[in-house]
Design a protein that fits this description.
Layout: E1 16-18, H1 19-24, H2 26-35, E2 38-42, E3 45-50, H3 53-84, H4 92-96, H5 98-106, H6 114-117
Parallel strand pairs: 1-2
Antiparallel strand pairs: 2-3
Length: 121
């Protein structure tokens, strides 16, 4: 889980629209969302955000980039921890137990053809 930054987006009043107005003026809302996020309020509280697809796609790609970066960072930290204390290493057999380990060893690596493992276009 990532820590909260405490920062909130800056929102101007022209970006907030009530849910009833949003439903009546949906095409306007779609058009406005292409320029900047539109915030839909319900009972005076912001409930939803509408983004243009380009902005959504940019945010999605940025999120995926940072998730991968964080994943690599975590792996690097764990490797460093294990180098610092190799006595903490646990074998796969010990981690999963004898029965599961025996099932893994009994698997036929050629049971599924390589080209069936991946979606190839």
């Amino acid at each position: 889980m990532l820590p909260e930054s405490g920062q909130k987006p800056s929102i101007t009043s022209d970006q907030i629209i009530t849910v009833s107005k949003a439903s009546k003026n949906f095409s306007y809302l779609c058009k406005a969302a292409k320029d900047k996020p539109q915030y839909i309020s319900v009972h005076g509280r912001i409930d939803s955000v509408m983004l243009g697809y380009r902005e959504y796609e940019r945010l999605y790609q940025e999120l995926e980039y940072y998730k991968e970066l964080f994943w690599k960072f975590e792996i690097s930290n764990r490797i460093s921890e294990l180098h610092a204390a190799p006595e903490k290493l646990v074998s796969l057999r010990e981690a999963i137990g004898e029965q599961a380990y025996a099932r893994i060893l009994a698997m036929d690596p050629d049971e599924i053809a390589d080209n069936e493992l991946f979606d190839v276009e």
